Amino acid sequence: MIKLTVLYPNVADLKFDKDYYIEKHGPLLTDLLGDALKSVDVNMGLSGVSPDQPAPYVVITNLTFDSLESFQGSFGVHAEKILADLPNFTNVQPVVQISEAV
């Protein structure tokens, strides 16, 4: 199982439209990635290690795929369209990691 983790840093000048992300960007991903996308979870940051500390990331999203080939075959062909949507909901560059879920 392959997991794509996308982390949006909670920086001082952050702009992030959570409604757009959930209502527009999420369905865009689902439509473009199709059956290759096995699951998605979206985590909205609340705080750091203690309630008085800001969350280091405003949003962390995990997308799972059966294999690296499945990920590359679905995400790769649509990467330009997916990345072009980012300015519609944020002004920060996300941190991305591809992992093997064990």
TrEMBL record:
<dbReference type="InterPro" id="IPR011008">
    <property type="entry name" value="Dimeric_a/b-barrel"/>
</dbReference>
<dbReference type="GO" id="GO:0016491">
    <property type="term" value="F:oxidoreductase activity"/>
</dbReference>
<dbReference type="InterPro" id="IPR009799">
    <property type="entry name" value="EthD_dom"/>
</dbReference>
<dbReference type="Pfam" id="PF07110">
    <property type="entry name" value="EthD"/>
</dbReference>
<protein>
    <submittedName>
        <fullName>Uncharacterized protein (TIGR02118 family)</fullName>
    </submittedName>
</protein>
<feature type="domain" description="EthD">
    <location>
        <begin position="17"/>
        <end position="91"/>
    </location>
</feature>
